[in-house]
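#structure-requests
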Amino acid sequence: MMILYSGTTCPFSQRCRIVLHEKGMDFEIKDVDVHDMPEEIATMNPNGQLPILVERDLILYESNIINEYIDERFPHPQLMPADPVMRARARLFLFNFERDLFSQIPDLERGAPKSAEKARTVVRDNLAQIAPIFSRQKYMLGDDYSMLDVAIAPLLWRLDHYGIGLPKQSAPVLKYAERLFSRPAFIEALTPAEKAMRK
């Protein structure tokens, strides 16, 4: 059985929980307090970060790597595109999400006021740029839910929590977010601490 060591408020862990629930497979989630990490975490991941997936002798970390492994190991429903060109594009999107959006999370969560405000602006501007996509299509890659939607959902869930208000022209992003949040796997994957982030 797969075991996911997951931070109860960690957006990267939330991604992996969503994928496990989308696949509807047997797994165990071990909740870890990110402010009081057990020693075994540092043994499994030299960076001392979550999430970590353990399956027999395999230990994986980094949410996108974990999620691609789960997707290949349990192909239904498939979350990465089957077509190599589309899959390469999806990986590029994921890379850009990490670089442009998720790299702001440390400042949003623990940064000094100036750094946090700058991070809020960066996220707001990046989301405003992609808003037109959702006027034309249901999900990031069209009509099919994919790993890109999984990847961005935890950030969208935390917008209010991080104090990020979107301008009117970003309304399509908020409608898209509500589509993601209404998925059964998304709801099942939420921890009590994450539910408390949005009232």
